[in-house]
């Protein structure tokens, strides 16, 4: 059952968080990822996956901790019931990947490609992600908590039951995005560079409305003068 918070006469449906319970894991000792690899119940600790190709791979009940993923190719990969902690890298390719029941904790990523990806019951907690590309992605039951997102691109994406809690958004792009039950009230900083007209379907606080007033006025072509 999805609970929500009432705003006026309308209830904002709350995002459902993942409930990941990992089994006893075995250490990964195969050295490199392989395309279409099948990884089940494994622990990847401090692994160096820089430049490797794991496109189409499936990670089920896995823990990835402290792994380097610079330029790692994980297009069409599937992460299911898994926890990714302290992963770091630039240019990671996760285009059209699937993340379902996943916790991403204290990640340090730059230019990660998640365009066309599907995220369902995902928690992104802590860390910093620069230039996150989520164009045309589908996010459902996703929580961004205590993290910093610099210039995230949600262009033409669909966000349903997505919450931003103690999260900093800098220069967010919502161009052509569709928002349904998106809760922005808990964002520590809310800066929308483009697509402010797509905020229908989201809820913001009164203070955030005042902060966004200049952007909203510009969008409407409204001149403000004393």
TrEMBL record:
InterPro entries: 5peptide_repeat, Pentapeptide-BTB/POZ_domain
Protein name: Pentapeptide repeat-containing protein
Pfam families: Pentapeptide_4 (PF13599)
Organism: Streptomyces macrolidinus
């Amino acid at each position: 059952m999805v609970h929500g918070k009432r705003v006026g006469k309308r209830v904002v449906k709350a995002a459902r968080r993942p409930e990941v319970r990992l089994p006893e894991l075995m250490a990964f000792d195969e050295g490199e990822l392989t395309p279409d690899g099948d990884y089940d119940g494994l622990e990847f600790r401090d692994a160096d996956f820089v430049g490797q190709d794991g496109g189409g791979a499936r990670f089920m009940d896995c823990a990835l901790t402290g792994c380097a993923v610079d330029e790692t190719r994980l297009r069409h990969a599937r992460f299911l019931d898994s926890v990714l902690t302290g992963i770091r890298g630039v240019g990671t390719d996760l285009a059209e990947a699937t993340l379902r029941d996943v916790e991403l904790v204290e990640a340090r990523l730059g230019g990660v490609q998640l365009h066309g990806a599907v995220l369902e019951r995902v928690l992104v907690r802590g860390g910093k992600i620069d230039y996150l590309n989520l164009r045309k992605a589908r996010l459902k039951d996703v929580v961004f908590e205590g993290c910093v997102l610099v210039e995230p691109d949600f262009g033409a994406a669909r966000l349903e039951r997505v919450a931003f809690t103690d999260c900093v958004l800098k220069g967010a792009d919502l161009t052509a995005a569709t928002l349904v039950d998106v809760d922005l009230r808990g964002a520590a900083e809310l800066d929308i560079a483009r697509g402010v007209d797509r905020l229908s379907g989201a809820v913001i606080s009164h203070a955030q409305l005042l902060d966004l007033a200049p952007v909203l006025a510009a969008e409407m072509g409204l001149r403000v003068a004393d």
